[in-house]
Write a structure and sequence with these properties.
With 691 residues, the protein is mostly beta strands. It has no helices and 55 strands.
Length: 691
């Protein structure tokens, strides 16, 4: 059962003077699963509540999947969201409940309130009541009043910042900011933000409340229907009553219940108001769709049925009555199968007569400006598959679909691959097919001619094999429904081409080696073949004999075509080869080049520093390559001025302690190695402060 303040979404629509021509056949196939339904008496799958929120349709009940118009199933546990425009399941919605959701309401923004028999929502403890944020993928909110067992919530509505709940529960309890409160049985008021129970709001029905809906006449009343015979001890409240939303929930004594099913007072399962009248779905051995004065409760008319009425909704100037009736004379003396439409003023039956299967049929309804939604046990409507959820639309609101979305074309070898998404709206009528058009000039697609391909409504990709490599092709796509053809999609273009087989690159060419003091410069030209993809690296290998290069460990890598390779032994002949690398792998080695190394200055020392226990800076460095000539000394600099010169041996020294730095002072240190050829480069700077 669904109630609330949104226009038409929750039973508060003002009917228009013109009656909408609602079609008997559902607009599209969609619903909930399992796809193979169990017997209706099992109650699973079953849709028990429907709530339109803008273009989103929240559906709740007992089910484990949703079924989109393409027939695809997606996991969904007892609550799901569809798009009203396309029928697509909202796969970003992650809300779930571990047991049946019986009722829904909204505050008019993105908050959706749930009632039911569940004990957890999204894995968090929520006993019978919860709130989700639609704009956050169904994230569970902190709103957490608790149903007092036994019993459940049957109906929810939102009005004046509060959530009103009806059911057969023993009470609803809350603890907010250290304050605890508990409602009376069957009917409760809860703050819509904090979840605090209004303990002083105490209308007291003596039995189950099945429906709650606010009056829309500005009187601040709440209509209540159910199994009760009294509210707050008043006998004039048999099965239906009006109480104040504010204060203590005082009973409205001017609104008095009347016999709602011939001469009997039968349970009320649902309520909806247009401001002047209150309409009710009446149960019992013979149900009824009933209208009464929203001011006094005086009976206006009552259309009898041969089964429970479960839900009533207003849309497009008509009142829709859904339930479990069927057969000859089943509703207002005529044959109707689970759903009927009447004129609100008189209760006169209209020609609207969809055929809904299953023994019980409709359990829930909702409406918006041009659509009526039903949910229940059924699996087909008017011969169209409808797994437990269906939408009827005003024929005047139906249009051709919007253009297919996200069309993409990609050229391959003698093929163009195309893909797309369904239109943003199917126009309120199920898609029938897609048509693909092609041209070899921009804008040259001729929609008056036979399309390149006519594809089923569930097809979202196509391979065009009738293409020639090197030719540019242009494509547009349209969607169709019973109303006509969509606008064309934005044009896409593709150029099929022969497949390129990627390989490792060839060998670099023109390799040269030129000796310089302390290094050999190796240069080369790129290979004749890159292997069909970019070269990412060159690797240089070295050996001391012709053909003796170690191809497991490069001595240098670069992305350029020249590199200086340090040498360590003067007068040594070194042999070099170069390889190229791409995404596939490493190519073959180049031809060899050789050079005789020359002595050069030492390499760079790698310097680090620390403070010893006495507070003196301690410098430590590595022994660099000697450039082909032994290192004879190390020069230590502080603040770019020579601090000390240290004689060198093959093993060092590799450390020096500066005992001259004044406490509290900071020194910036460097070191360099020197051999007979000259000085090596200065190391990186190390800054140390004496404590």
């Amino acid at each position: 059962m669904v109630m609330g303040l949104l226009v038409v979404a929750q039973g508060l629509v003002a009917s228009t003077s013109a009656e909408a021509a609602l079609l008997d056949t559902p607009a599209r196939t969609w619903g909930v699963g399992p796809a193979d339904p169990t017997a209706a008496t099992d109650g699973s799958p079953r849709v028990l509540a429907i709530l339109p929120v803008g273009d989103r349709i929240v559906v709740a009940g007992t089910f484990d999947s949703v079924i989109d118009p393409a027939g695809k199933l997606y996991p969904a546990k007892n609550i799901a969201v569809f798009s009203a425009s396309t029928g697509a399941a909202d796969l970003t919605f992650a809300g779930s409940a571990n047991n049946t959701v019986t009722s829904l309401a909204t505050d008019g923004t993105s908050t959706v309130y749930l009632g039911g028999t569940f004990g957890a929502v999204n894995g968090e403890v929520r006993k019978g009541l919860a709130a989700l944020d639609l704009n956050a993928g169904g994230q569970v909110l902190g709103w957490a009043p608790t149903i007092v067992a036994p019993g459940q919530v049957d109906s929810l509505t939102y009005a004046g910042g509060a959530v009103f709940a009806g059911g057969n529960f023993a009470g609803i309890t809350s603890t907010v900011a250290g304050t605890s409160a508990t409602s009376r049985p069957y009917l409760a008021k809860v703050d819509g933000v904090t979840g605090a129970v209004a303990g002083s709001w105490v209308p007291t029905p003596n039995d189950r409340v099945r429906s709650v809906t606010p009056a829309v006449d500005g009187t601040g009343r709440l209509f209540v229907g159910g199994d009760f015979t009294t509210v707050s001890g008043r006998a004039s409240t048999n099965k239906i009553a009006a109480v104040a939303q504010a204060g203590t929930g005082a009973l409205d004594p001017t609104f008095k219940a009347v016999a709602n099913s011939q001469k009997t007072y039968s349970p009320v399962y649902d309520l909806v108001s247009d401001g002047t009248r209150l309409y009710s779905a009446v149960g019992g051995s013979g149900g009824a769709c009933t209208a009464m004065s929203a001011t006094t409760g005086a009976l206006a008319w009552s259309d009898r049925s041969n089964g429970n009425l479960q839900s009533v909704r207003l849309s497009g100037g008509l009142l829709y009555c859904g339930g479990h009736f069927s057969g000859t004379g089943s509703f207002a003396g005529q044959a109707r199968q689970k759903l009927a439409a009447v004129t609100p003023a008189t209760g006169a039956l209209t020609a609207f007569a969809p055929n809904i299967n299953s023994s019980q049929g409709v359990w829930a309804m909702a409406s918006d400006a041009t659509r009526v939604y039903i949910g229940g046990d059924f699996s087909s409507v008017s011969g169209t598959p409808q797994p437990h959820f269906a939408m009827f639309i005003d024929s005047a609101a139906q249009t051709a679909p919007q253009a297919p979305a996200g069309v993409v074309a990609a050229g391959g070898d003698a093929v163009v691959h195309l893909s797309w998404s369904p239109p943003s709206s199917d126009g309120g009528s199920a898609l029938t097919k897609y048509r693909l058009y092609r041209a070899t000039t921009p804008g040259g697609e001729n929609l008056a001619k036979t399309p390149l391909a006519s594809l089923s409504k569930t097809t979202l990709a196509y391979d065009d094999l009738a293409v020639t490599n090197g030719t540019t092709y242009y494509y547009v796509l349209v969607a169709t429904n019973a109303l006509g053809t969509s606008p064309t999609s934005p044009e896409v273009v593709a150029n099929p081409h022969q497949a390129v087989v990627l390989t490792a690159p060839g060998a670099p060419t023109g390799v040269t080696a030129a000796a310089a003091p302390g290094s050999v410069n190796v240069s080369w030209s790129p290979p004749a073949s890159t292997g069909g993809t970019s070269i990412t690296q060159y690797r240089v290998y070295r050996g001391t004999t012709a053909g003796g290069e170690d191809l497991t460990t490069p001595v240098a890598t670069t992305t350029g075509t020249t590199v200086d390779v340090p040498t360590s032994t003067a007068g040594q002949t070194y042999w070099y080869v170069v390889t190229a690398v791409n995404a596939v792998g490493e190519g073959p080695a180049s031809a060899e080049a050789s050079a005789v190394s020359q002595a050069g200055g030492p390499g760079e020392c790698q310097l680090s520093g620390s403070i010893d226990p006495t507070g003196a800076p301690v410098l430590t460095w590595t022994i660099p390559a000697d450039g082909g000539s032994p290192i004879t000394k190390y020069v230590v600099l502080r603040d770019s001025v020579r601090l000390v010169t240290l004689s060198a041996t093959p093993t060092g020294p590799t450390t020096y302690t500066d005992t001259t730095l004044t406490p509290g002072s900071t020194g910036v240190y460097q070191v360099k190695a020197v051999n007979a050829v000259g000085s090596g480069p200065l190391s990186s700077k190390v800054t140390l402060t004496a404590p």
